[in-house]
Amino acid sequence: MRRILGLVLAAGFAQQAGAQQFGGNPPSLRWQQINTDTVRVIFPRGMEAYGRRVADITGYVSRYHRATIGPLQRKVNIVLQNQTLQSNGYVQLGPFRSEFFMTPPPSSNDVGSLNWADQLALHEYRHVLQNSNFRKGISKVVFYLSGELGQAAATNIAVPNWFWEGDAVVTETALSNQGRGRLPAFFNGFRALQLAGRPYTYMQLRNGSYRRYMPDHYATGYLMTSYGRLQYGPQFWNGVTDDAVRYRRVFYPFSQSLKHRTGKNAAGFFRAALGSYAQHWPAATEQAADTLTPVGKHYTDYKYVYAAGNGRLIVSKSSFKAIPAFYEIGPDGKESRITAPGLGFDDYFSYRNGQLLWTESRYSPRWGWKDYSIVKIHDRASGQTRSLRHERRCFSPDLSADGRKVAVVAVTPEQAYRVEILDAQSGAVLQSLPNPENWYYTYPKFAAGDRLMISAVRDKAGRMGLISQSVETGESKVLVPFGVPTIGIASVEGNAVYFTAAFGDADNVYRVTLDDNTLQQVTRRPNGVQHMAVTDGGIIYSEFTASGHKLLKSPLQPVASQPRHSAWLRPDFGEGGDILDKVPARDYEVRKYPKAHRLFNFHSWLPRIDDPDYGLYLYGENVLGTLQTAVGASYNINENSPEVGASVLYGAWFPYLRAGVDYRMQRKLRVNDTISLEWNELDWYAGFSVPLNFTAGKYFRSVSLGANFHHLTRARTASSKYRFRDDNIQYVDAAFTFSNQRIRAVQNIYSHFAQSLVLRYNKTVNNVPGEQFTGRLDLYLPGFSANHSLVLQGAYQQRDTMLRYAFTDHFVYARGYEKPFYEHIYKAGANYHFPICYPDWGFANLLYFMRLRGNVFYDHSVAYNFRSRKDVTYASAGGELFFDTKLGNVLPFSFGVRYSRLFDTDPVDPARSNRFEVIVPLQQLFAY
Hints:
Radius of gyration: 30 Å
Distance between the termini: 21 Å
Number of strands: 47
Low-confidence stretches: 1-18
């Protein structure tokens, strides 16, 4: 138990520390701030209105709506990022800060249609209040001992991840007129499992699965936290979390507090919460439909559907085994793959007249928070895919009927929204439709001979309506009045517009006529319908099920409509309801934010594990993420050598700049059977690196190059009989890495096609001879089955034979052997990885087994012994068994066992021909 908790503690540190993109913004960005007693909002010039709004909402919530989580409030820095098309936000400790990614999501189904800045302020500031009020009891003691990351680890162990997010979703629902708790689509997952009668345990829900669908911790969290609020009152979770973070009950403190207060542990509380909601999800009123796609045990999504004539359909399909791709489904149900899209900020695509259109993401090579989109067009007749020139910030392309124009939703960094009409050949902007209200357009569609643009839009208050807009005059007409329910993707058929909307307890298809705005409901399904196509006198639509989105077909005729949401989608959490129109606008002073503000900003003591080095370091990082600092000590268990050191890394300029000093004591080197050395070593270094991101299409692609200059002095210890001939060494350490990895599906162990190349070169630059070169290449190829992988490895290392100085050894030797004596060495290896089973089983909420996989390998290595002037072979073969698990229901951790059969003589133990090893890579926890 103690060991597992220690691992979870360490992983909690790393999880919090990895949230921000270091050095992600170009130095040309000019930062401003609004500084209040509650928050400091930091934003690029031009975002003043959003900075004021965030300050207003967070200040109001802090004053009037923090009692349900606790009375404490700590001032936080909130950074508004407007250079990225990602739609997200986070709060972290270490250092205590939050970032809002200001581009709204293209779809309103996932998180709703609230003003995006308002929703981020409600949701993320709840996380701020959680962290502020969880520094109590044992968690407070850990904070004093380890800093902010220590508190993060302690509270993440005590409080399950579903509560953090569920409580924040309850807050956005309680304090607005919408929030995810009022979105029917938010309940699609649990509702689908209930309708299918799929059994699952609380542990399975917490950890997920590689083989079947499980709702995420947002949905789980809302189900449980809303149930707790409604059943036991607004202060209920305040008491439960107070018990948990204080560790009033050491083992399972959160679950034990629930047991003490309700008579139900966490698993029992979940069953009660699910039962409370499930009673509102009957299937009796569902509309009859024919299923067009297979419904089996394997999760498969058919998300978007278009009619292609003669009974053919064009769809987007993905599964746990295969990446998303576009398919044609024939009248006989036979599927044929067309092409596959690349990485994008939105998975939507459109189809018209044999052309498929979608957007893919493109990234600034150096600046991680600066990205774009490009429009891709695939022509079925020629089989060619082309890109419209000009990178732009856009989503949701649609092709005109004449094939000459493309409409996209365009977003500026200052959050101005519009529909742009592009030339379908050159990508040049032909026209921008006027948008005086700054509505946020979603999925625009050409209509009426390309004279109209149909789109669902969101206004500044978060209400949605369906409009038609004249392409010629820009005049807009409201087809469906603005309201709180979300509206999805539209499809135009003649004089009618079909669209999905959340007018009832589940998203369904509706139809409105262009001439007289007559509104009718077309489908009445028990779970969420996402997209539709009208064909052959019927309507085909994508509905979410326990096996993924499936295609169904119903007659095209009106059905009885549900006029409003049922009570379970209109919760009252006792906080007075929507505050967003009550928040007063205050007059803030907007000032320049100095980039040098609290540059060092030390926040945490953090263990560092990089076997064989184990240490403890004090870490710092400034709010903008441009300077990282570390000061601490470590111990090398191979040499029994302690070390102290300090380093800084500056990432605000194009190259990363680094500098540092390390002092290692009692280093040891055994030259031969009679001579050994022991010395102390002082190493001053400085250098640079350039991390570049060339991710595009279906490939994550990165390049990094850099070099460090080291000035090293050595002095023998008192216990050493021998001293070094060279006690002053200067050398250069240069490195180049390249990685190219094709995207992979959930169950794929490795990418079906990937390459990784690492080159390192060390060379002394004073009169002391010393040199080492290391190269390694890994090639990933598909195996005999979708989830199998063949991994080929090649490595080479050469070093000088003077032994005047030994550089750090990065070579990966043949498995089963100890390190041989050599001047140069190479290794070729082959691995075949394959899944064995998916247990979906765990025990005591401590360790959960998601997958068991195997690997068979062969390593062939040849080392040149410069003293005997002979090549010595070291070959081995064997197998590895890996367990992919989660610790504490949250942290991924893989460990395994290895058997190696040695075909040659081991350089250290000649009698050994078999070797068993346990593989426990603790450093993986710190990379999480």
